[in-house]
Amino acid sequence: MPNIQSAIKRVKVSEKKNLRNRIVKSKVKTAIKKFDAELAANPATASAHYSVTASAIDKAAAKGIMHKNTANRKKARLAKQLAKAAQ
Predict the structure, then answer these.
(1) Both ends of the chain: CA-CA distance in Å?
(2) Which domains does the chain have, with CATH numbers?
(3) Cα distance between residue 27 and residue 21, in whole Å
């Protein structure tokens, strides 16, 4: 643990940010897993889960937790899976 007051504060702030970032990343991963499960079980209704998943990814990108190109890549891959399952 640091002795300098500003360093102590930085540790606390970084812990809070780390916790928030982990929560958002976890929500994105959970949404993707739910989408994959729904796609495997019932491809006809998976488009509703796609919109929820894409929204979670966009929120993470907007908060700066995920780079915008990473978010777009993930959404594109999910859309590709959805299109392939619809055929």
Answers:
(1) 57
(2) 5-86 (1.20.58.110)
(3) 10
Helix axis angle, 46-62 to 5-41, nearest 10°: 170
Residues 82 and 53: beta-carbon distance below 8 Å: no
| CA separation, residue 84 to residues 7, 11, 57, 58, 81 (Å) | 51, 46, 21, 22, 5
Tokens representing residue 39 in the block: 């796609």
Among 51, 67, 54, residue whose Cα is nearest residue 28: 54
Rounded Cα distance, 35 and 42, in Å: 10
Q: How distant, in Å, are the alpha carbons of 9, 14, 32, 56 from that of 23?
A: 21, 14, 14, 12
pLDDT tens-digit series, residues 10-62: 999 999 999 999 999 999 999 999 999 999 999 888 999 999 999 999 999 99
